[in-house]
Amino acid sequence: MLNGPTSDVWITPWVTELEGLGVELRLGAAVEAIESEHGRVTGISGAGFSDQADYYVAAVPVEVLRERIAMDELRRHSPLLAGLDALQVRWMNGIMFYLRRDVPLVHGHTIYIDSAWALTSISQRQFWPQFDLHAMGDGEVGGLLSIDVSDWETPGEFAAKGKVARQCTKEEIAEEVWAQLKAALNDGTEVLADANRLAWFLDPDVVAPNPTDATNLEPLLVNTKGSWTHRPPAELPDVENLFLASDYVQTYTDLATMEAANEAARRAVNAILKASGSDAEPCAVWKLHQPGGLPFQVAREFDRVLYKVFGSSHGPLPTVELKDGDLRLNRPGPL
Ligand SMILES: Cc1cc2nc3c(=O)[nH]c(=O)nc-3n(C[C@H](O)[C@H](O)[C@H](O)COP(=O)(O)OP(=O)(O)OC[C@H]3O[C@@H](n4cnc5c(N)ncnc54)[C@H](O)[C@@H]3O)c2cc1C
User: Fold this and answer.
1) Which of 43, 124, 253, 288 has its CA 20 to 30 A from that of 169?
2) Is any ligand 1 atom within 6 A of the Cβ of residue 254?
């Protein structure tokens, strides 16, 4: 979670830092091909440009690398790159609601576990102490709800009753999401009021040309069962000068997030240091911190062993439950 609007606290400072280091950023230059010979990259090209370098880092989403960038020779040479086809992406996109008065909800993420469109939310203002919302825009906005919509295939229940999100217009999506939020939050008291809603903004990657039958320019990788083996490491064993720095790479983080992309990038940097014989200090790489301490760790280990032993058998699995500080094994049947 960031401590302010993404551009203000992250993108702009980072771009400034890179430019200060002499990095040339070319916006709007989509790579369309990676040329190679015998598994060694010799150049990249796109509309009206081409470039050569000693080392290359592919930091584009998995569906772009495998579907929109031509690299046939490289795929023939590298089974790991060819294996990217086995990875799955699904829709997950965001919508913002701008509120007159702030509604903090909880100090963290909220998951709307029974919402048809699998909503989660963050009420942003409480996490942005340095930013005065009233000093932005027309000054009317006092609160900001940021919502992720993770199910685009289940019919809506209110404004878009019976319609799946990907067939809705932008307006229908906004109204249905708002109604699903109200159904979950206005439980006896009115937490979200229509009169408090000033405006909304749907992720522009959801493009609805017709106006239905929307396309999504930016789907998200999902870890499906068995997908780990199809995810490549940052350092490809069969390509000497191309490295991968994106959220689908095998990392300790192991979930398509900014943290995973960041870890993959650190691994790619280390691989370049190694390949180039540099004696510069490598980037740190650390195991994912698991919250919850020892009790949860023990419960997870129990769970792992039980799954190993009984996972392939039919019928309900035994589960481990942590209750009032005690670990309890629930056996669903005779074992
Ligand atoms: C709705 C939503 C909410 C999320 N919430 C969170 C969250 O709360 N926390 C979290 O950690 N993660 C979150 N994620 C996941 C996170 O955004 C991604 O995992 C992360 O951005 C992946 O980083 P990346 O560098 O691999 O790819 P990206 O951030 O997708 O960057 C890829 C870059 O490649 C560029 N590009 C594309 N095609 C080309 C081309 N042909 N040539 C050159 N450049 C190209 C793109 O413009 C883009 O800048 C969320 C994702 C979504 C969709």
Assistant:
1) 124
2) no
* pLDDT at site 314: 61
287 burial via Cβ count (<10 Å: 0-12, 13-18, 19+):
exposed
Which residue has a Cα nearest atom 32 of ligand 1? 60
Residue 44 pairs in a beta bridge with 34, 51
Q: Encoding tokens for residue 148?
A: 């992720």
Cross-strand pairs, 122: 146
Counting beta carbons within 10 angstroms of the beta carbon of residue 221, is it exposed (0 to 12), middle (13 to 18) or buried (19 or more)?
buried
**Ligand 1 pocket mutation pick from 60, 109, 250, 253 by most atoms within 8 angstroms of CB:** 60
What are the structural domains of the chain? 8-87+227-275 (3.50.50.60), 93-216 (3.30.9), 293-330 (no CATH)
Q: Token digits for 14?
A: 């980072």
C-alpha distances in Å from residue 108, one per residue of 127, 196, 201, 203: 9, 21, 21, 21
Whole-number Å distance between alpha carbons of 258 and 105 = 24
Q: What is the pTM of this model?
A: 0.86
State how far the Cα of 123 lies from the Cα of 101, in Å rounded to an integer. Answer: 12
Taking a C-beta distance cutoff of 8 angstroms, is the pair 310, 317 a contact?
yes
Q: Kindly report, residue by residue over 104-146, the tens digit of the pLDDT.
A: 999 999 999 999 999 999 999 999 999 999 999 999 999 999 9
- Residues facing 326 on adjacent strands: 323
Distance in angstroms between the alpha carbons of the first and the last residue of the chain? 44
Give every CB contact of residue 172 below 8 A, 6+ residues apart in sequence. 156, 159, 160, 163
DSSP annotation of 25 reads P
CA of 99 to the centre of ligand 1 (A): 27
Segment 226-280, tens digit of pLDDT:
899 999 999 999 999 999 999 999 999 999 999 999 999 999 999 999 999 999 9
